[in-house]
Amino acid sequence: VQLQASGGGLVQAGGSLRLSCAASGLIFDDYAIGWFRQAAGRQREFVSNITRLGVAHYADSVQGRFFISKDSARNTVYLQMNNLKPEDTVVYYCNYKRWPDEYWGQGTQVTVSS
Questions:
Q1: In a 3-state reduction of DSSP, which class is residue 13?
Q2: pLDDT band per the 50, 70, 90 thresholds, residue 93
Q3: Which residue, 68, 113, 53, is CA-closest to 87?
Q4: Which of 109, 97, 91 is nearest to 44 (CA)?
Q5: Run of H or E including 100
Q6: Per-residue pLDDT, 26
């Protein structure tokens, strides 16, 4: 199984980025897929996920600003991040989960300048 995350970068506060995480080697539609983020020295925290049936969930801190979606034809999940804030500056990780299996992407850095 391989997960390839991309789309991070540097953006000014109030700007937008779209993260992508493409999967190979698994049956995409069998997995719940999520995004987590982690700052240096801190625990990884939940950002958003989308279930097998397409139900999305969000952390309170990103509700209304971030939107998760998936494209089964491309085996890819997206995280559209709008109105970015400096506190969103961390490394973002995608996560594919189907009990008991769980896979993580390599992380992509998002930096929001004030």
A1: coil
A2: very high
A3: 113
A4: 91
A5: none
A6: 92
